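INFO batch 0412 | record 1 of 1 | parsing
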Amino acid sequence: MPILAHALRSGRASVIVFPAAHLVTSKTSSAKQRHRIEDRFLLLLRILLLLLLTLLAASPFTSCSQVSLTRTDGASLAATLIIDDSASMRARLKNGTPRLTRAIDGARQLLNSAQPGDSFSIVLAGYPARVLTPPTTELASVEIALDSIVASDRRTDIVSALSLARSLQDKLSHLDTPIVLLSDLGVSPGTELDLTGVTLPQEELRTPLSNCALISASPAGTTLVVELACTDKEAVEGRQLQVLTEDGKKIAAQTEAQDGAVQIEIPQAPERGSDPIDLSAWSVQLTRPQNEELDQIPEDDQTPVLQALNRLSVGVRADESKAGLKTGTGTVLRAAIESLDMKTHVQDLSVLPESAQGLERFSALFIDDASGFTPEQTETLSDWVEDGGVAVLFAGPGLTQAPLGSGFSPFVSGALKWVPNKDPGIDPDAPSNLGPLASSWSDLRARSRALLAEDPDLHVRARWKDGEALVVEKLLGRGSLYTVGLPSSVDQSDLALRPAFVEFIQLIITQASLSKGAGATLVGQPWPLPKGVVVFAPDGRPLNIDSSVQEHPNIPKGPETAASHSVEPQVAGRYKVSSTDGTGAASFRYAMRDPSEHILQSDTQLVGLWGADVPQSLVKVDISRYVALLLLVLGVLELAFRVHRRRRGTTLTAPAFSAP
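INFO prediction complete | emitting tokens
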């Protein structure tokens, strides 16, 4: 309608009779004048004015969603913003924006809606949870703190973040003390979060995750063992693994990627006599999928090759009368470890040590068909695993003979049960990261099995077809604890006769070489350092050294750490440690990704867990005043353009010639 009115406004031109025109021969012209719309800018302004008038008239029905907070009678408030800076927040939304960027934008919206007297504080929910900004009314400093938040590979620690937020609010006297949680809620299943009174805006952060991450790569004999963690088969289908040198040169042919452990043959070394291959600068890269939406975190598609610093020592506690070889001496576990040729030293243990000195020389520990652990053994195992050890418990019928006062902690909580087995084989469709050969357990047969009760601290790595867990993992400090619901004895099952058994043993030793042999820790775990050193990040940047190690909750206090320094690696990769004066040889330390952090889906059930106490949707804000302001601006522009056009038309009416 405005276009039609604008085009018809000129009407027909008036005819002026020129007397001398009859002296000129009349001719008919074949040219035709085309109709054109004039003053297009003026037309555009008028169309926008009409649209804004329509929107303003409908303002009772139109509003926009943004993060905002309610107030009690207009009083000032003290808000605590919990921003999740864990690895899962690196995932891209459909428009390509990372979740963390969207969360920070939401925090800025809150700051923009602040009134004089409002107080804000910021807590970061990546492990370990920490206070970025204490409560302050200086909103400029809060804005600067938001700008300092960077993406990381930390795991999620929302439980501790909520505890920190509530401890900050306990000291405030404001009537309104809201807590805003800006997170994708990517927590382990079964995690209990007290979300009472917590606002959960930005529902787009909790969209389904599709991702495949490279967790680690470590040499094992003549191969590289690469561990992947993927959300589903589509995320890894058709993708390849490529070994690269420090300058990006490809070393070997591409290898098909699979969820779990993948072996890559190490190419022959260049001719240098007897010098070993230097893998310290190598890395493994995962090719991108054709559909970018199937891998939402591209930053976790590359990992360095970790070099073990010494020969690994492996302890085996197994009874040869129960789990011995049928064709010779020794146990099934020892034979499987030695068959891998991973340059390990295997030592049989008659009993488990009850002191730290008895386990400190081992990197991995295999325990078969134990009848329980004493409190002293439990404490020794816990301390050893927290320091980076990896232990495996093969549960067997011996658990029914547990002495009074013994248990199976720290592997599992509570007692284990030995029950008859009805359904043979594991579920091939259940999520697992044990490697491609785990499918050889699909028809696994056993007369009986251990019943493993699931709890939030356990991650199921393999399930029976009836849904019960066969292999579970528990993370403790820098190390891991695995529990298998069958013993290694071939009389009880054919567990040890399948290729997946040897692959599982290799995975355990590889993890031990990372956490113990190569000095690798999970991202976010602080590293105590002596004075006079500088640490360089994987991208070459020097890191800030924290001189308050003795105050850190994750580092034990003592005279040896009181005068030390520490750093917290924020991203996975290889870190170079050298002296500040440049003397001495540089060493390397590694920060590893948490496998579960890169594949956990958002637990949307947590939102409804606490009923009405959990506000989910964003606050609706009336936009009529913004529309009215824009309408006023466009109206002024339209009037100014008309005045300018009229003056310009008056100036151009002067005659082109004058009569003599």
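INFO post-check: The first helix runs from residue 2 to 8.
INFO record closed
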